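Because discrete structure vocabularies remain unfamiliar, we turn briefly to a single example record, giving the amino acid sequence and backbone structure tokens:
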Amino acid sequence: MTLFVLVGGAALLLLTDAWMGGLGAVGYLFDLFDIVSWLLRITIGISVIAVGGWLTATWSSNRCIEPVALTLAAAVLCASSLTGLNLITASMVSPPITGKAALYVSDPTVPLRWQSGTDARYATLERQGAAGTTFLSHITPLEGAPSIRWAIVLTGSARLDPSLSDVHLIDTPKHQIVTGASGAEDDAVSGFFGRTQKPWVAASASRIVVSLPRFSTPEPSRLDVKLHAALTEVLKSPPRQPAHVEIEFDGGGLGPMLTLTSASPPSAILGRPHWTATNELRPVTYAIFDQSAEDASRNGLFVVAILLGTAAASLVGAMQTIIQRGRES
């Protein structure tokens, strides 16, 4: 009996650890909706319990082996089903818009194009709970314009994670400064690529909501003394407000199973998350519906219903066995 309980407990502990770590059944369900892998792991857990019960039964005549085995099997089924059900049916809250990306230049007369983007199609990491959102930005002078030095001040949700970003950052408690030069200079760095410290994406089983920070070109007079001095150092001149910047943000092309369901303000391209503005792009929020994930989540709910029914049957069987053994004694 002791061996059986230890083996069953080990099986439960192993499965729970895998599920909570996102490496087991629920991780697969929520990420890839791989029903086969999910059922395989549950089958392995129950098989371990069954083997433990058989080994214990061969060495002991304890009459409680059968109800204990049924109860452990029901616990495995309930643990996986309820955790998976919680992930599939969890409600979604739009990420708060708290960040801003502000552009300053060394020469305000040079017209610029500021292109940024992310790709919400790859929200798998956000679904798994990873922090941050992949973000890229590129600044170029308009055709025929001379080279120019620029600096972007990132605050709030726009701040990048230095360990996951291909960019040199000047990091302060309240701001981050990304610098570069666009034009004909040999050492010009016209953009950056990184991952934000806070996610812009919230994802449920079949829906993705993205909240973008504000992209602007504010007056340098609003800067505090320390930030103004830091910008002056990297720009090699006092920071200036550019006179003309064409701002463009693109959320990536959507596949045939993805649909842009809402956007505020409306997207500039029908069916694609894309916005353009001059000198300031106000915060944008948009939502995407994933039909493939919706179909998979329905399959998952069907499997969850079957597993919960099996768990209930196992508990009923365990109770019947206990009552019957009690009457026999």
About this structure: The chain is about 40% helix and 25% strand. The CA atoms of residues 75 and 270 lie 49 Å apart. Residues 100-283 form one domain.
